[in-house]
Amino acid sequence: MPAFPFSLNDPIQHHGPLPKTSDVVIVGAGVIGVTTALFLAKRRISVTLVEKGRIAAEQSSRNWGWIRKQGRDADELPIVIEACRLWKELAEECGEDIGLNQTGVTYLANSDREMAGFETFMKLAGAYNLDTRLLDSGQTSALFKGISRKFTGAMTTPSDMRAEPWLAVPALGRLAARLGVTIVENCAARTLDISAGKVSGVWTEAGRIETSTVLVAGGAWSSLFLRNHGISIPQLAVRATVAATEPMAEVHGGAAAGAEVAFRRRQDGGYTLAPGSHRLHLGPDAFRHATKYLPALMAHPLGTHYSLAAPEGFPDSWSTPRHWTADAESPFERMRVLNPAPEKSGLAAIERGFKRLFPQFETVRLKASWAGMIDAMPDIVPIVDRAQTIPGLFVATGLSGHGFGIGPGIGRVVSDLIQGNAPGHDLNRFRLSRFNDGSRIRPGPAI
Questions:
Q1: Residue 100: is it exposed, middle or buried by C-beta count within 10 angstroms (0-12/13-18/19+)?
Q2: What is the pLDDT of residues 183-199, one digit of tens each?
Q3: Burial code of 392-416, b = ≥16 C-beta within 10 A, e = fewer?
Q4: pLDDT-based confidence at 5, cuts 50/70/90?
Q5: pLDDT single digits (tens) 88-102
Q6: Closest Cα to residue 285, out of 377, 361, 199, 366?
Q7: What percent of the chain has pLDDT over 90?
Q8: Beta-carbon neighbour count of residue 314 at 10 Å?
Q9: What's the confidence (pLDDT) of residue 240?
Q10: Which is it for the CA torsion 319, 219, 96, 271, positive or negative?
Q11: What are the extents of the domains in the chain?
Q12: How many CB atoms lie within 10 A of CB 442?
């Protein structure tokens, strides 16, 4: 079966060159880094975006492609609402077909208890005038062609959207480049250059860029980069397996998730499928931050499987260095793209779960499978903040599987933070200090 549909053998599109100076340097060319750069460029601020591998080659192109307001944390929801508007604007601006469609998101419930959980979100949906509604068992069945089983009910938001991640983020990168952003792929940022206690530049494998402002938006690698500068964040990376089917008859035009399988209609006429669980590889950071994750694990004990050790070269591998210097090869150069193998058991579960739901398909042919590492935080919401200990340093990471949909909203917020403007949203929940200032960890929704 073919692997991840984004080919790492495709020619590099963005060669630089690396400038000597830049107003802002962004480390990491995922959806957050790209959209932040884009919004800064619109304000005529010079931006250099450095990426150790390829634009969106990691989780920003490996996700499910959902753009949803439904089920969001209360503090994320206002930014997601903005992001949905921005997705439409940016899709038009980039002039490329990124598969953006407003086809809705639906969560399926197996019990009255799950329906009661949906009721909790309905209160929030009402406060923001969302079109979210609850469905009974019959209404749920009518939403899907040929579905084999009866669900207790469902929650659905017809205005939620879908897009093709491996098309969308690279397209936004090309838009950013047209607006003047310097993008340098295959160029790892090694360390910050700090003078008189504040940012004065970034050392990359290709040399130094002078700058007073750096954003670390490195996804699963952010914690490792920051630790080298004495900043510890309890970020872990969990492996999620995904597959794409061959084109098949449509059973539902949008996205839906139940306990066994999640699925989304794709632009090519197939479905993107994912199981209802993920895997955490245990490493030094997993043990170091274990107590901070207890509230989330107790709330959702069956959503995570465990492996004794992360593969060599992964951010939390036992063999990955935690400290290095600007003149030494960094872990980011040793693994240009974090490309975990999909789990065979996960692929089997995907196929079984989808066929049980839709038995009219004698076979479910998978044309591609892949896995991604989701950068997770203990409370399932990100860090979006400036680092108080190193003036000039900003952090946007730990999107916990929500990054693709909320990406343009976070990018706009971070661009204003960097400029010293009001961000337009209450960011207290996302502050960097919340894990060491005595605050209670309050997990957001895992749906």
A1: buried
A2: 999 999 999 999 999 99
A3: bbbbbbbbbbbbbbbbbbbbbbbbb
A4: low
A5: 999 999 999 999 999
A6: 377
A7: 83
A8: 23
A9: 93
A10: positive
A11: 24-104+159-435
A12: 15
- d(CA 393, CA 213) in angstroms, rounded, equals 6
Q: Which CATH superfamily is domain 24-104+159-435 in?
A: FAD/NAD(P)-binding domain (3.50.50.60)
Residue 89's Cβ-count burial label (10 Å; 0-12, 13-18, 19+) is exposed
- Distance of alpha carbon 379 from alpha carbon 37, whole angstroms: 27
With tokens 């960011």, the residue in question is 427
Closest CA to 337 of 362, 314, 320: 314
Write out pLDDT tens, residues 328-379.
999 999 999 999 999 988 898 899 999 999 999 988 999 999 999 999 999 9
> Nearest Cα to 164, choosing from 64, 57, 88, 239?
64
Say what the pLDDT of residue 9 is.
Answer: 73
Q: Which residues is 50 bridged to in the sheet?
A: 27, 184
* CB of 278 closer than 8 Å to CB of 300: no
